[in-house]
Amino acid sequence: MDVRLSPEQIALRDSAAQAVDKLGPATVAQLDDAERASKLDAAIRAAGWRELRTPSDDGKPWASAVEVAVVAEELGRGLADAAFLGPTLAADLRRRSGAPPTTASETVALVRDLSRLAEADNDADAIAVDALGASSALLLLAGEDGRRVGMVFLENGTTGADLTRQVARPQRGSRATALGGQARPLPADDIARWLSLGLAVTCADLVGSMRGALTLATKYAKERKQYGEAIGSFQAVQHLLADAHVAMEGSRSIALHAAWAVDALPADDALAAGAAAKAYCVRAARLVCETSIQVHGGIGNTWECLAHVFLRRALFSSEVLGGVGANLERVMATRGIGGEYGLR
Fold first, then answer.
1. What is the pLDDT tens value at each position of the chain, 344 positions in all?
2. Burial level of 211, CB count in 10 A (0-12/13-18/19+)?
3. Which of the 8 DSSP states describes residue 274?
4. 1-344: CATH homologous superfamily?
């Protein structure tokens, strides 16, 4: 694996960075700016980033999981309050099932604890994640010939603990229906590879959240003065920021490997890489984001400080497709120690 980004990937990263630097929320108050959020959503739509995993003429995705992760990291760094994870996973699920792409906004529905993709017959309390603007969500349907992709209509989305993304529930009385045009049931390998993509993208979002939180804390440490000196000159603060930087860089490395593995390794190895990365990044993200709050001192615990928004986003991404325990179980399952690796 070559960990260096290609010139095209660097250009993609810079484009995503420019979009969130210009249109992302710079303060907590700007999260209520509907005009700004609409412009950010329009920029993401116009760039085609949500279609990176739609099929090209040969049926393969237009972009690798690495490109998706590059965009996800920058959106996480900039606290982008526009949908990306959900639509991207929905597009990849459509492609794998052979169903045609859609122009409608849609996302994916996960089980109540957000650890895996919901199944229509078993998960009445399914939750659609990253549901801003989505009118429907994809989930699995059980059939005699195997699992197929179904669609369920959603109620209006609502903002939860994560102030930058919405969740939604299926409409009451709405029954999931199979997508038209599906070529075949989804084999276990396809579900596992889809899950590995989801894990890689959530890891990238966690890395972005860590970067944003660390940048915020570092800037504050350079500006805030105590006893006539910037607090960043104090060794205790330097140690906190150094440890956070090490955790973030380690997360970045394992997250990039997970993204590369999605398209480069066999399904079980890709899932093991994604699960290991998620377990690592979840622990690191909490450390880094809480360190950012600590470095800010008293102001870090106030609503006006962006530090808590990074922590909220990181905690939500930590739960999507499972946290530490669920993903360590996945690693063991891929090595034959138990469980069905495609779903657990």
1. 777 899 999 999 999 999 999 999 999 999 999 999 999 999 999 999 999 999 999 989 999 999 999 999 999 999 999 999 999 999 999 999 999 998 889 999 999 999 999 999 888 789 999 999 999 999 999 877 889 999 999 999 999 999 999 999 999 888 899 998 888 899 999 999 999 999 999 999 999 999 999 999 999 999 999 999 999 999 999 999 999 999 999 999 999 999 999 999 999 999 999 999 999 999 999 999 999 999 999 999 899 999 999 999 999 999 999 999 999 999 998 887 755 544 43
2. buried
3. H
4. Butyryl-CoA Dehydrogenase, subunit A, domain 3 (1.20.140.10)
Task: Please choose, from the candidates 54, 167, 171, 192, the residue with its C-alpha nearest in 3D space to the C-alpha of residue 111.
Answer: 167
| Half-sphere CA count of 64, side-chain side, radius 13 A | 16
| Residue listed under structure tokens 């290991």 | 276
- Strand segments, DSSP code E, in the chain are 106-110, 127-129, 136-143, 146-153, 158-159, 166-168, 177-178, 225-226, 229-230
Nearest to 202 by CA among 128, 275, 106: 275
- C-alpha torsion angle, residues 217, 312, 29, 219 (rounded to 10): 10
Euclidean distance between CA atoms 258 and 163, whole angstroms: 27
* Tokens standing for residue 330: 């996945």
Counting runs of H as helices and runs of E as strands, what totals does the chain give? 9, 9
* Distance between CA atoms of residues 242 and 221, nearest Å: 12
What are the C-alpha distances in Å from 17 to residues 5, 53, 316, 340?
15, 20, 22, 38
- For residue 253, give Cα distances in angstroms to 55, 203, 269, 326: 28, 10, 17, 21
Instruction: Report the 10 Å Cβ neighbour count for 128.
Output: 27
Token representation of residue 11:
């250009």
Residue in the block written with tokens 């990181």: 314
Domain boundaries, the chain: 1-344
